[in-house]
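Students often ask why inverse folding is considered easier than folding. One informal answer: many sequences map to the same fold, so there is more than one right answer. In these notes we will look at a single instance of the problem. The structure comes first.
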């Protein structure tokens, strides 16, 4: 029946028995009839209680989807929390007019000619790490869903959608909830980020919505070649996928990984699917996005990004075929001891070593020796760089002793960088501290140096 606009979701003649969501290990279906009844129940609750801004405090994906559309049916603004921790929900409850935690069934579904509209509030970490509210009109989310269906709908077909990412951030909300609802594809309620859940989900022959962190981790936890089923499509967003990880997944799933570049503020900006061709690292703008370049920064114009051009802190350069190359964050070029230092360039140089799997460099506020000689972070001493390095499993050449390893890394960097750019503190965790969005924040990296 095609992809319905979200504003007209209840106006399509969908069969009440059509599956909307798959629940539990057995994948039991929740139907369109149950969804419309649950949405109507939430709408009735919101109308009776009143108020405009309502908190969507639903950690379970089915309740989240039904309650969101119930609130929109009632003309309310939907406030999506950045997480479902009790303290976060208590704080947001003080500034909203009502909250929904479960979506119980109402007396009947909405009338066939019912149109929904409104706003949805998301949160993003922003460049400072402090949560920032981002308001999206339903029409903007509608435009995003329509773009995704135009670009990737044929690839997905009628496949159900499963995900390793949370449904309450904009990427997971769009790909795991809103797009499947509009296109009539069932979505799996439970995330499948662990190996057991991933194996079960593959039995559905699904489209997989993931993050670079999960796509990097899963091949180390299970034998992909030993799995009988494979997804029809794989999506990744939240950061660039390492080319090595992209090659691993393409060998297993010939369609490769469809990477989406964007943000909460802009929505999807561009996409790519990396393979062995050098130009596959370039990004193709989405068909409703215009890109420009201003002093080396990417500038985006799109209805989904809001009125007027939006300048991003991403360095980029155009290519003659209309695509572009990302060159790292502009705000990750720092000045230390009067020297300009590119943190992405440091990371790329470290990762060029065959025994380094991942590297991340962060500016630390400084160190002061603690009693006994142990270094501790303070804000009163000279800032310096800290490097977090994940070693490649089984790779030859990595010194076994930590001191020798640090010396080897510093010697390697010294071939290209002056002394102020050489990290003075080092950590070697099993993996980088990505958050549930697949983001690697300076705060999380700096936290590794406090112990």
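Output (designed amino acids):
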């Amino acid at each position: 029946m095609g992809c319905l606009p979200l504003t007209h979701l209840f106006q399509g003649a969908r069969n009440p028995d059509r599956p909307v969501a798959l629940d539990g290990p057995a994948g039991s279906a929740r139907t369109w009839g149950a969804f419309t009844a649950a949405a109507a129940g939430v709408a009735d609750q919101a109308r009776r209680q009143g108020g405009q801004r309502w908190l969507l405090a639903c950690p379970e994906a089915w309740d989240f989807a039904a309650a969101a559309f119930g609130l929109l049916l009632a003309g309310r603004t939907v406030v999506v929390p950045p997480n479902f921790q009790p303290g976060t929900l208590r704080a947001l409850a003080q500034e909203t007019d009502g909250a929904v935690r479960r979506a119980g069934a109402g007396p009947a579904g909405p009338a066939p000619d019912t149109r929904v509209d409104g706003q949805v509030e998301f949160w993003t970490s922003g460049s400072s790490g402090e949560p920032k509210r981002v308001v999206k009109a339903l029409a903007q989310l509608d435009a995003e869903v329509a773009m995704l269906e135009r670009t990737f709908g044929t690839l997905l077909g009628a496949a159900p959608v499963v995900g390793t990412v949370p449904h309450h951030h904009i990427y997971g909300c769009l790909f795991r909830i809103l797009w499947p609802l509009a296109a009539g594809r069932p979505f799996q309620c439970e995330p499948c980020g662990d190996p057991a859940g991933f194996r079960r989900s593959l039995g559905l022959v699904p489209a997989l919505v993931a993050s670079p962190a999960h796509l990097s981790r899963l091949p180390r936890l299970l034998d992909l070649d030993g799995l009988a089923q494979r997804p029809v499509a794989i999506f990744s967003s939240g950061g660039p996928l390492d080319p090595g990880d992209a090659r691993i997944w393409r060998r297993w799933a010939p369609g490769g990984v469809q990477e989406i570049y964007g943000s909460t503020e802009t929505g999807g900006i561009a996409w790519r699917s990396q393979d062995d061709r050098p130009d596959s690292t370039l990004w193709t703008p989405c068909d409703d996005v215009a890109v420009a370049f201003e002093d080396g920064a990417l500038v985006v114009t799109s209805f989904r990004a809001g009125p007027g051009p939006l300048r991003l802190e991403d360095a980029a350069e155009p290519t003659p075929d209309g695509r572009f190359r990302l060159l790292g964050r502009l705000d990750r070029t720092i000045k230390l001891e009067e020297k300009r230092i590119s943190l992405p360039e440091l990371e790329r140089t470290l990762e060029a070593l065959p025994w380094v799997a991942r590297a991340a460099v962060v500016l630390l506020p400084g160190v002061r020796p603690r009693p006994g000689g142990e270094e501790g972070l303070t804000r009163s001493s000279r800032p310096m760089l800290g490097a977090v390095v994940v070693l490649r499993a089984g790779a030859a050449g990595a010194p076994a002793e930590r001191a020798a390893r640090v010396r080897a890394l510093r010697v390697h960097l010294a071939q290209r960088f002056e002394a102020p750019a050489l990290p003075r503190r080092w950590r070697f965790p099993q993996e980088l501290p990505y958050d549930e969005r697949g983001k690697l924040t300076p705060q999380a990296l700096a936290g590794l140096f406090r112990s």
